[in-house]
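Reply to dn_fold:

You asked what the input looked like. This is it:
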Amino acid sequence: MDGFHSLWSKPYMAGKQADEYWMQDYEVLTMILSALMWRKYNGGIRLCADEEARAFIEKLGLAHIWNLGIEEITVPEAVPEKVFWAAGKLYSLKKMQMPAVMVDLDLIIWKDIRNIIKDTDICAIHREGIFPDVYPGKEFFHMKPEYRFDPDWSFEVLPVNTCMLYIADEAFKNYYVDSSITFMENCLETEENLCHMVFAEQRLLAMCAEKQGKQISSFFPGSAQIENQDIFTHLWGYKNILKFNYKEREAFNRKMYDRIVREFPEEETTLKQLSISGL
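and this is what came back:
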């Protein structure tokens, strides 16, 4: 089963007013292990990246990590990166041929999941509750006057966490992604507030699936199961600890470095060329 990562530089470049794209060392190590573990157990993996992100990857000598190569993506200026910081994932998904699995850069899948997803329409890690501060009603959104929410979309259906997303059907993928892109390109919001991005990526997926009668399977229906599983590791909020706690970061980097070298000794030379704190 093919997988893909997405790396879009614009949110970082705009936020830092930087001339070059850059990632934290712990993010780089996690990304490397994510790609390598996918290759070990689940198939080939591709990186979708814009020009600046690709230059960063090639400068570090990491392009070979994605054995299916690097696909260039472009996100239109009409999509505000401050609001839709993860839009690169959706434009990457648009270019990929289904069936395939979209994997976040900070998600490591430790086992073969192909038998779990092979007979499903759509598969993700889990559903999410409709918490009003994250998933508000449609009156919350700041949209162009001509934009209309599809009346067949239900705001009652539970959103889907898309840190890992499998879609079997190309036609459905296009319907979902086109719906998300249309939403983003018609948005008038200029300030980050979380709600617009998760609507475009996570809530619309559930709405589109329900409208077309597609079943969404989840690895873990309940949060307790997520706490007691060994299929995946998702850094998510832990990255904020690593960003500000240097001692924690050093320990994490050493753990990641050792795991990569143990599992993939051929990559030790690659890692030694990187600048990693704690090593």
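Residues 35 and 203 are 27 Å apart (CA to CA).
Hope that clears it up.
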